[in-house]
Amino acid sequence: IGITGCRAILSDHGQNDYPRTDADALYDDYAFVISQIRSDAGMLTLPVLVNRQTPFVQTDPQRHVRRAQERVLS
Questions:
Q1: Are the CB atoms for 68 and 31 separated by under 8 Å?
Q2: Which of 19, 32, 38, 62 is most exposed by smallest CB count within 10 Å?
Q3: pTM of the predicted model as reported, rounded to 2 decimal places
Q4: What is the structure's pLDDT at 35?
Q5: What is the residue-wise DSSP string for 37-68?
């Protein structure tokens, strides 16, 4: 970051979380990771892009991951 700078972070978080069914807990994990990244980088308003390419999103048991991702985006 020191040489070229940083304009945003791409988050691919959640891809392996589909066995966890609590969308609120997944959202909390996202929020924590984003907060920690921003804190560690010393850039509290650093944009974070969320990858919504969630596997198995078309089946009911895994839609909670996409719901958590959508909530982070909003």
A1: no
A2: 19
A3: 0.76
A4: 94
A5: HHHHHT-TT--EEE----TTTTSGGGHHHHHH
